[in-house]
Design goal:
Blueprint: E1 2-4, E2 7-9, E3 18-22, H1 26-37, E4 42-46, H2 49-58, E5 63-67, H3 75-84, E6 92-96, H4 101-109, E7 114-117, H5 122-133, E8 139-140
Parallel strand pairs: 3-4, 3-5, 5-6, 6-7
Antiparallel strand pairs: 1-2, 2-8
Helix pairs in contact: 2-3
Length: 141
Amino acid sequence: MKKNNNIVTMPKDLKGKTVLVVDDNIMNIMIANIILKKYDVVVSEASNGEEAVNYLKNNECDLILMDLQMPVINGYEASEIIRQKLRLNLPIIALTASNTEEEREKCFEVGMNDYLAKPFSEEQLLQTICVWIGKPEDFII
């Protein structure tokens, strides 16, 4: 449970939600898996943007956690493809080590919905995910 700006998030209601974690760093994927699986989230993985795009051509998910700096196709390009070519409207949350306003703006320009700077806490991750795929009852004001 996390309280932020008078909102309490109850992540237990994420059970069964599907999240695609896109990151070229195996440790980041492991950390996301550990956190999300505690709340019975179904996690799929891709190690670059090309794998993410190919995954989404044949599979559905509720939310994407997208690293920005990856080989083959980076997070910016992958997000543009997901929005423009695949025409998917699912939430994309950028995950990045850089925390500049320019980078944040670029994320929104390519169609990402939110932004988390690494390192982030478990509570920050869960709060952000709940904002985008939680149920109204997840929040108590």
